[in-house]
Amino acid sequence: MSPARKASKKKGGKAAAPRSQKKRSASRKAASAGETDRRVFSFGDGRADGNSTLRELLGGKGANLAEMTNLGIPVPPGFTISTLVCGEYRKKKGKLPAAVRADVLTALANVEQIRGRKFGDPEKPLLVSVRSGAPVSMPGMMDTILNLGLNGVTVEGLAREAGERFAFDSYRRFIQMYADVVLDVPLDRFEYRLEHAKLSRGVTLDTELEGADWRGIVQEYLQLIEQETGAPFPQSAEEQLWGAIEAVFDSWDNARAIAYRKLHGIENSLGTAVNVQSMVFGNMGEGCATGVAFTRNPSTGENDFYGEYLENAQGEDVVAGVRTPQPINDASRTAETAELPVLSDTMPDVYKELEKIYRRLEKHYRDMQDIEFTVEQGRLWLLQTRNGKRTTQAAVQIAVDMAKEGLITRKDAVMRVDASALDQLLHPALDRSAPLEVLATGLPASPGAAVGRVVFSAEEAEARAKAGEHVVLVRAETSPEDILGMHAAQGVLTARGGMTSHAAVVARGMGKCCVAGCGVLAIDYAAGEMRVGDKVVRAGDWLTVDGSTGDVILGELPTVVPELGESFEELMKWSDRIRRLKVRTNADTPEDAEMARRFGAEGIGLCRTEHMFFDPERILAVREMILAHDSASRQTALAKLLPMQRQDFKGLFRAMDGLPVTVRLLDPPLHEFLPHQDDEILVVAEALGLSVAELRAKLESLHEFNPMLGHRGCRLGVTFPEIYRMQVQAIVEAACEISAEGVKVRPEIMVPLVTHAGELSLLREEIKQVISQVRSCYPDSRVRPSVGTMIEVPRAALTADVIAEHADFFSFGTNDLTQMGYALSRDDAGSFLPSYVEQGVLEDDPFVSIDEDGIGQLVRMGTERGRTTRPRLKVGVCGEHAGDPQSIRFFAAVGIDYVSCSPYRVPVARLAAAQAVAMEGAG
Amino acid sequence: MSPARKASKKKGGKAAAPRSQKKRSASRKAASAGETDRRVFSFGDGRADGNSTLRELLGGKGANLAEMTNLGIPVPPGFTISTLVCGEYRKKKGKLPAAVRADVLTALANVEQIRGRKFGDPEKPLLVSVRSGAPVSMPGMMDTILNLGLNGVTVEGLAREAGERFAFDSYRRFIQMYADVVLDVPLDRFEYRLEHAKLSRGVTLDTELEGADWRGIVQEYLQLIEQETGAPFPQSAEEQLWGAIEAVFDSWDNARAIAYRKLHGIENSLGTAVNVQSMVFGNMGEGCATGVAFTRNPSTGENDFYGEYLENAQGEDVVAGVRTPQPINDASRTAETAELPVLSDTMPDVYKELEKIYRRLEKHYRDMQDIEFTVEQGRLWLLQTRNGKRTTQAAVQIAVDMAKEGLITRKDAVMRVDASALDQLLHPALDRSAPLEVLATGLPASPGAAVGRVVFSAEEAEARAKAGEHVVLVRAETSPEDILGMHAAQGVLTARGGMTSHAAVVARGMGKCCVAGCGVLAIDYAAGEMRVGDKVVRAGDWLTVDGSTGDVILGELPTVVPELGESFEELMKWSDRIRRLKVRTNADTPEDAEMARRFGAEGIGLCRTEHMFFDPERILAVREMILAHDSASRQTALAKLLPMQRQDFKGLFRAMDGLPVTVRLLDPPLHEFLPHQDDEILVVAEALGLSVAELRAKLESLHEFNPMLGHRGCRLGVTFPEIYRMQVQAIVEAACEISAEGVKVRPEIMVPLVTHAGELSLLREEIKQVISQVRSCYPDSRVRPSVGTMIEVPRAALTADVIAEHADFFSFGTNDLTQMGYALSRDDAGSFLPSYVEQGVLEDDPFVSIDEDGIGQLVRMGTERGRTTRPRLKVGVCGEHAGDPQSIRFFAAVGIDYVSCSPYRVPVARLAAAQAVAMEGAG
């Protein structure tokens, strides 16, 4: 699992924590309000002593069982021994108080009555499960015993009811669990006997064993226990029960549980409850069945009851997939199950009851439920209900439908969809039902799927794409020179670089699928091939990459493009009404701008002008500009670029009619625009009339040890003022001309990499000068460009109060702020960041979600200090974090005005911004 | 001037500002205490109406003149028209109040009486100067008129007294100044006439003109003024006086003065005073003289009256150097002036009076004075006294002497020496009296002077040095591979890099002279030569470099090594008693450590273990370690290094017996240890039994885009734990073994580049483990190494409270903190930083003095937050800023415990730390 994915998983867990704590204290309150005397809480037959508010006393499971029972749901009856008893038991060093024993027996009698069965009865024995259930979920940490109540006598009764095979298989399972949990006999001893039995009977599967076989195995198990423990297996059902209850209480203090609590900060004193519940069986023959159902379609979200069942089977048979389950109704049919009988026909009464129940559950829990049911001899039992997992598409549909139905509020609906999953809906996805051969897995750097022929250079990508071919660009890593090739390709695959490497960032900006940092690829450009182990992929071979999973797959796989339904639009509309944070986009071309606008962008927050410089028609002029020997020849070269840039801005302004457009002046170091390969140097030198040596000398002089901290950003503006002057002239001329056409233009000029107020003060003066010069040529124009700055250097955040004196707006570049504040070059972090995550030094990749503890301080400080100088200072965030839901919540809390993300992240940001508001006050 | 020097000059000015403000408010108080009625303040003949506390009213100059008069110093008499009158004059729009006119005439009569001359008198005319004098110094901003009182009549009287030439030259000077200041006639008109006169008389120098010539020129000037102004030049002395006084008041509001005040934040309402003072002349013939003197020797600081004079001359003649001045006494004789008559013989009474005066002045001003005097017809007049400039050596001597004499306190003495100049005393200096040809000038990166033959490679430097030659290493830039060559050379010269480039930092650490960033050098390694313009310097040519000025000089110049006298030791002792900040040193070898200890270092604050890795005997093992394919082979290589490192540490610990030694674990990126040149790669590949391709592949894989933000520092420790384990083992073993010999060892282990508390937590555990493993082998040892961290990443400072949980001490690496916080790679800043300083964007190079406004916040935050967790946390600063006096004052204010600087900066730091204490409360 990539660090990013791991991180987001953990975060999910963390974010949920405060909610459960809140519930816990509510329950403590209820508990103290009057129920504290009671130690054993019965449930069953529509009546329960407890309810969902008593989680502290009953544990999560016990509280839920009580709640369902109270709803009139047919839950198998039982009782919960409260956590208070656990405390008493622990205090008394493993002795169950006599009063509790009495209460348990009373509650047990109640269960017997409801089920019409008796505990230890030779004819119709009642069997129970004994399970732990703590107030805070500790999955898999404590023990469970099923089928308790079986012994040499009751097993024969059960055999008469449900067959020998079933009865003795159940018995041996019980013995095995009981031995493990209560008697401390290691499980492998049993496994060995079972394997031996199968061998001697010449079979390989448990299901191939007959009743008599199981009967034999039970005998062997019983002997084994007597050997191991020096005593026969307890035959008294009641004795079994006490043993199991005490073992569950003991399990609270086993090493695993203690470690888990320490790790998750759970108090030792909480204790666990014990749930004793009647067993029900869907495999006792005629009139028996078991199934699972979703209250709505978990794949599409349609409001249809949806599920499947098996007749005369246990729950695990449905999951195991040995037999094909039948649909519960017509709506649940698939192509495969079109001919099978449905539950609504085979057990119409049961089905009707199930329908009533699912409606009641959904109404009560106000969410789509995933339920497990069992029909035992014609009687329906609900074993479990929980919020159902669903696809993102279904999540959107269900949330919107439920809000329309009045089941939840629109705010609830907005909270119901995982914002970070939302852009799955916008990209083509791989049809994973087709057979596939995963060659390697890299980082899921930019979602979507791409299919094409392998090319190893940007030039070839462009050439083949022009010829109408679909290609996947494979590079060790990408650089700005590869941008046009990336644009031409269907997708991008790199061997190096992280989630925020050049390839990843640019691809996400383009909405192009990308798998990055696929370290096992050994690319040989010269040979035109790459190797993964002994597999060789050659240029021209078909390759499929899945940017949502990081999978690289040999061959040409089908993809599907999901449709954005009305519900999606509705949910977005609701989000827009709730959120306060504005959402803009990062876009450098009119096409990107238009797409982002369709996705709801409210302006451009970052137009990177340098992306316009790489166009083949312009790069020569750019290089002339860089290689100019003096200011005059630099200006000559810039004069060639001016009309082109003006044209670019016109297109952007037109696309963003009425919305603000923030244009960042030239940012990257100049050497990025020069060729570095020998052959290219030759071509460029010739084109510019230079000697190769001259060009090399210039390249050498532009070389930097740490370009990130070098001559870039506004430092270019200070040292070569002509460049920014040309850019500002192009922006303002474009704005004035377009505005004369009736387009509403709101240009914002942004100065990058400001470290010191002196830089901005100087450049702002120059920019203002150019603005007023240009405006004097368009006397009627109402264009009033504002001038602001990126805050992307730690010092700028620290001195934001002084910098704000010269800025109409701030825009945090949290990528660079992270790189510098964290001393972490995103292009170089690949060599150690994985090891960091592995060793638990870092939980998160700070380029994926903003590091709130560290870099977040700079964002907060910069915002607050900037506003001490200009209380109404507009503050934005552009860059990768602006499209990350968790970071967006942080930005909203800090009081940022807008985020600006890549077009495909715009809906994600809109939703996340609304969720930030909805979560306010929820901690 | 380099940015650094410019910066330190400006700072000096800034630091002085609060003091003068303080004085100003004191003077305001005195003024309000009773003297406010008086508008004209007389001085002369031992009596003055004002004194030095009335600066607000009298201006700086007026207050000083009054003060000197009150001391009984024979100042030419005069009077000061107060700043209040300036206010009234400005309010009345240029009209001098009648009462003031009356007071002026009264005061003038007083002057006439003292001088025995009359204003406008045809026989013995009184001439006066009229000068502005504001409460705050505004040098050159306002006007001055000399010789006022001359007209057609008085000039003839003066001619009779002092000759025609003198009288008419004085008159034409007066006309010219008056015309410029009062009548607004452009100066160039006069220049033209003067040039014309010289041409027509066939001479080129003013001094070649005779009295009659000047008489003619005066006539032309008078005509010119009448032409230009339409009125004759005012012939009434009184009219001249009013015109001059009003012009001085007007000059307060001229454009230059307004701009100056705006720039320096001086209130417009202050106003200027006007000083009218009798002229005195040292060139009126017999019994006349003029001279300058220092109350102590400004070069050596010896307590001897020291000066020179010229008979029958004006002050400007002494300065102009046309005639050789005579010594005032025997102590002032030089080889050149050994035979000349001295003032104490030629004018014994005057000399005796001068002696009395200088003693009185020194006692009063409590500092060595630089005085100007004139003898007019046998009468001594003091024109000026001010604190005298002196060499650093003299400054030390004078400060210590004066403290011993009881003239000043020891604290005062400590404040009297410019700490940043102190290391001049420790390095050899160029004998600049020898003729020299400056080839080029770079940055004065490490002080001292070096003479040697040019070599262009570190290897050659080593080879030739071993052969006993003196060499100067010339490189485009240096890298860690050059360290041994740098050590072998007398000095280092680089074409690229700033004050904190590798060459500069390492050279300063070694106390080796270095000129860096000498951009005009075009080095051709292949040809073995460098060019500056059309000059060619070849390998083997003699070169002299002056690291204190940045000069690169052709040829072999003599150098002198200054002696450190007793006074220096005394001053250091006093500093040590005053300061609270401890001073440690950065040292990697026992030799450096011993030298630093002699300079007063109180421990090692930074031992860079990697410097030990470049030794030719070790580098192979280091490279094996880097190229190891797995942990086991890495350990094999490390095992070879272990005994060597242990030996290193033993040496250091021995040298630092009783003092703490902070050892920083490996910090630089591994690629720095690998060869990069083709030929070297070949050699290394062979030595390691690798193919060139393998070695190249490793190099390629270690390449980083931004190594500063890459895989270095503790990131190496996290990813390759064996390296740090070996280093810790070496440290602790060395400590235990040495301590068994009776040496007191106090090792401190320091983890570099910590960004996140998780890193330190993990590494600290491992380090503690190794410590206790080693210690278990030396059960008797009392060695208890502490474990701390560098704070050099912005995030570490921001989260210092959490990091402090795992650190026994902090040491700020303010170099890296500046690089990251400022987004400024010190190796790359050369391409734009000069332009920044030129354009006034930055005042200071943030690598020379810490940027208090920005990076300083991180230091303060890190210290304060660290101490919220550990109130007694020891906090140091290592790196360049630790040796910079201005930064040291800041660190002292923040509450840092110690600074650690290169050995030669230790005395600087000791003094600066004492000054920080002495300045407390002084604002």
How much of the polypeptide of chain A forms β-strand, as a percent range? 15-25%
Please name the two chains that share the biggest interface, counting residues whose Cβ lies under 8 Å from a Cβ on the partner chain: A-B, 50 and 49 residues
- Which ranges of chain A are low-confidence, i.e. pLDDT below 50, for 5 or more consecutive residues? 1-34
Which percent range fits the helix content of chain A?
Answer: 40-55%
What's the mean pLDDT score of chain A? 89
Largest sheet of chain A: 8 strands, mixed
- Please report the total strand number of chain A as a whole number: 34
Shape of chain A: elongated
Radius of gyration of chain A: 34 Å
Number of helices of chain A: 34
Task: Kindly name the structural category of chain A.
Answer: alpha/beta
Kindly report how far apart the N and C termini of chain A lie. 29 Å
Oligomerization category of the chains in this entry: homodimer
The strand line-up of the biggest sheet of chain A is 15-25-24-17-18-19-20-16
